[in-house]
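Deliverable D4.2, example record:
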Amino acid sequence: MNNSDTDYIKGLNSAQEAAVTNIEGPSLIVAGAGSGKTRVLTCRVAHILQHGECTPGQILALTFTKKAATEMKERIAGLVGEARARWIFMGTFHSIFIRFLRQYASLLGYPEQFTIYDQTDSRSIVKQCIKELQLDEKVYKPNVIQNVISRAKNDLVTVGGYRASAERMQADMMARRPRTADVYALYQQKCRESGAMDFDDILFNMNVLLRDFPDACSEIAARFHYIMVDEYQDTNYAQYIILRKLAAPHRNICVVGDDSQSIYSFRGARIENILRFQKDYPESGIYRLEQNYRSTQTIVNAANSLISHNEGRIKKECYSKAETGDKINIIKAFTEAEEAYLIVASICDRINLSKAQYDSFAVLYRTNAQSRAIEEALRKRNLPYRIYGSHSFYDRAEIKDMLAYFKLIVNPLDNESFRRVVNVPARGIGGTSIERLASVASQCGCTLFQACSLPAETLAAVGLKDAAVRKFRAFRDTITPLTVKVSSSDCYDLAVEAGNVTGYLTALKADNTPEGMARFENVEELFNSMKEYSEEETELRRELAEEDDLQTVSTVTMSDYLENIYLLSEAEKDDTQDPDLEDSNKITLMTVHASKGLEFPYVYIAGMEENLFPSESMNGSPQEIEEERRLFYVAVTRAMKAVTVSYSQNRRKWGSEESNPPSRFLREIDSKYYSNPLFTPRTEFVSQMESRPLPKPSARPVAGPRTDFKPSPISELRVGQRVEHDRFGFGTIVSFDGHGPDMKAVVNFDNSAPKTLLLKFAKLRIAD
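Output generated by the structure prediction step:
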């Protein structure tokens, strides 16, 4: 230990200390928003290592995000030393369980190097299934079917169980999708044939392993003397059953969560898991972390008054010892455009009064569609903003292409990856040829990659011409030498070789348009990340080898890298910021769901109307309303200093104006926590906001929108000129491309990344 027996206890309040020091038997830690949950978890691990009779490797700590696991491990290392912390089994549910699935893969009928399919891969296969079953994609919408399959797996319902469920089959009939079970069956068949698991399969198959193979279950459960679970309110049924089995021998399970922040039922999360914990473990201790260290007293008290309307909850009364703080302000608008204008005006007002930075502000909304009006209002004021989670680096086509190559090299059984890259870059292999290859593969019971090696007469029998056969065989001959290097080559070295021999990097280099160069730079960034991962992981393995007196250090393989990437949660992938967004001093726009776990000094919650928040789709039962109320509770408790809520009397929906009353949730907050009545006269508030000046930019000056803005003739524009755009401000012309009406210019703007603009629409003015 780096510290004395009691150093990590110092500074904990009495409830936190009790949660840290009572380590034997089952424990439920109810952690209110901003209550120091992560500190309690890390100190508890330190206490177990100091006073429990176990080694670091006998502690299992499960989180929902890699980011949370990494942060906790770093904090634990600061308390107990890195040498001990690194041996703790700490990570996401998927990253931990996949280790056991690879170890026991043969029992489940999977190859050890099975592929992990992400959401995009999964949806692509669902589309194939719908097409092969000759179903109408407008009725059997791939995203809907994918979600149905996911929910079934999270509930541990097999294809057979799905067909046997009268309730599920009746629901499909009512939705006019009676063959959903057939899609589910074909989907599972295709994943099996490809030696692949999707994210839901990892949990599903972990349950199968523990249920059907008692020896494996005993071996795994025996490894861990202490189990800790973060965000327990977000666990689904599959995770619940796994934890019950792993904790059965010793019952030293500690779960941490807040039922008031259970907002993911649409992902299969079951709030009853945390609500029934004390019934599952009658001898459990319960520790309530009720002191909020994040927010003002007003915010905490307002949130308490709101959530008290929920009946299905664990009793707790959060409090804050911070300053009283500002009361909640209500903005009432006539239209969503005016609502956005008033929100932005309020932000400007706050910046002027408090000198706050742009990144102190977050605008939250119930649905992504609401961002449009807010974006327009921010652009008109030239305020910098970012939409949290709007772009995932890993969802870009060129990145998915390269990763598909990697997956195929690691697992040639992977039909989905084969389909994606067999004609990328173009090799003259058309969709018809691929479907004919798929047909013969199905007839022969083999994968697409294996079908490339079938006798010529077999391939000809399904209509494949000699030229197509030669192209498929050439592709096979390109990939095969790479597959034999998977276990012996460094991931970065193999990636570079793959990029070159497949011709993919050459094709990207050949495209010298700004878009093409950006794609090449993105792939380069992918390779950079692989190099960084390889170096860091190699160093870690070297240190571990020295500790164990091992003579060799294992190679960081392509399989290792892919596992690291594909075990990121979808939310974490979305949080991978666009390389263009280097300046973090921007106003954040995001859905309330995306805001969970974050905090901002000033929070605006837009669209507080009935049928929007609470959502019209979540208005059918008391349980759904309670989840919507928890969602609003999460939104309010993101704020550190001040909360502003807004609603509009009219909102456009499918081209028509719709009017809904203010959300019931606004009335459920005690009125003493509001600074203005619920029905503030609109004209008075607008005049108040219009009378206040705009904030001075904190960085380079940005040109404001001008009513007298007149663009210069395109014929007068030159490379190197300083120009002004009525939205993006000032910049410099870097280059031109194209001719006539298709002519484009690349402009390097002072306050944003370079942009490619179609000049007939761009309206650039030569700066004086």
